[in-house]
Design brief:
This protein has 249 residues and is an alpha/beta fold. It has helices at residues 11-22, 71-74, 76-79, 93-96, 99-119, 145-161, 184-195, 203-206, 211-226, 238-248, and strands spanning 2-6, 28-33, 49-54, 58-60, 65-67, 84-87, 124-128, 167-171, 175-177, 208-210, 232-236. A nine-stranded mixed beta sheet has the order 5-4-3-2-1-6-7-8-11, sandwiched between helices. The protein has a two-stranded parallel sheet with strand order 9-10. α5 packs parallel to α6 (145-161) and α9 crosses α10. The relative contact order is 0.13. The model is unreliable at 56-66 and 182-205 (pLDDT under 50).
């Protein structure tokens, strides 16, 4: 099988790439991102990897320059023949510099990637979303990032589902365990949940999931689709993600 990964330099995306390369089920892996995904010299399956470097306005490869805002019409070659697209695109409002910049990455580019994948006949699309994603939030309120985040992630999900893929996997992790790359709020969560007993009732809200396990659940869903055991839209909340990752180990 062949896979295309968007956002492979991020916490989850990096593990998606590593696991794809290490798996005998995948014979070709293409990454599309702002920079190449760093790989250790002894990375298993490194010969299967093709990397396409992207800036915010253009996609550059040896033979083609593609405007990211016209991904569907100009990047057909990147998606042609791909069995599965894994989309881990995402930023923060602070990194993007504005609410509009955040929406461009977390919604517009996700929607463009989904449209390009569908146009190329890709049957599977897996999206890293977020716990609580909801397109129906009445306002994204530019001054309130949580509502902007929730609505944008929800709209991105709807954009993917609206393409009608044979299988669309929507993965909604809550707090992520990024290891050494943990953000401040994730470190605080780890300290709190490590210091107090958390009941099963609250674990889905306060417990973290390793980024490698999110990636593992996504690859497992794609493999299940290839095997013919799942179709349509599958939404994975925190408990589902942890169960899927545990089953795949």
């Amino acid at each position: 099988m062949s896979a295309l990964v968007l956002g492979g330099t991020g916490a989850v995306g990096h593990h998606i790439v590593q696991q794809l390369l290490a798996s005998d089920q995948w014979n070709k892996v293409t990454t599309v991102g702002r920079r190449e995904v760093p790989q250790p010299a002894d990375q298993p399956g490194a010969s299967k990897l093709q990397q396409v470097v992207v800036n915010m306005d253009a996609l550059q490869s040896e033979a083609v320059v593609v405007n990211m805002d016209a991904l569907q019409s100009e990047a057909a070659g990147s998606f042609a023949g791909v069995d599965a697209v894994f989309c881990a695109l995402g930023t923060t409002r602070a990194d993007a510099g504005s609410a509009d910049g955040f929406r461009k990455v977390d919604h517009d580019y996700v929607a463009a990637a989904a449209a390009a994948a569908k146009a190329a006949g890709v049957p599977y699309f897996g999206l890293v979303s977020a716990q609580g994603a909801a397109a129906g939030v009445p306002s994204d309120w530019r001054l309130l990032h949580p509502l902007l985040y929730t609505r944008t992630k929800g709209l991105a999900e709807e954009a993917v589902k609206g393409q009608g893929f044979a299988r669309a996997g929507i993965f909604r992790p809550g707090m992520l365990d990024r290891g050494d790359k943990a953000r401040y709020i994730e470190k605080l969560n780890a300290a709190l949940t490590g210091a107090i007993a958390v009941s099963d009732l609250f674990a889905p809200l306060t417990g973290a999931i390793a980024v490698s396990d999110v990636a593992r659940a996504m690859l497992s869903d794609a493999a299940a689709f290839k095997a013919g055991s799942v179709t349509g839209v599958g939404v994975f909340e925190m408990k589902d993600l942890k169960a899927a990752a545990a089953a795949a180990k």
